[in-house]
Amino acid sequence: MSQPGSTSPVTTAPTTKHSFNIYSMMLLLSFIALSVGAMLLYYELQKYGSFPWWKAGTASSAGS
Asked: Does a structural domain hold residue 13?
């Protein structure tokens, strides 16, 4: 037990900055992959047409 008038120093654990681990790197890599895929899809839709693809009003059937 401590004495009524004594002060004890408060000890705190040293804090360290956590570095990237494998899960943080996989999260970053998946974010980059999804971003690149979304950009490529956007560029493809700009080049070849827009959504929805199945409403082609000018297409004619070749078999008729």
From this structure: no
Q: Which residue range is the domain that position 43 belongs to? A: 22-49
User: For 31, which DSSP code?
Assistant: H
Q: What is the largest CA-CA distance in the chain?
A: 102
**Digit-coded pLDDT (tens) for 15-63:** 777 788 999 999 999 999 999 999 999 998 888 876 676 766 665 556 5
How far apart, in Å, do the first and last CA atoms of the chain sit?
Answer: 99
Helix residue ranges, H only, the chain: 22-48
Q: The whole model's pTM is what?
A: 0.52
Q: Is residue 11 part of a domain?
A: no
Specify if 27 maps to a domain. yes
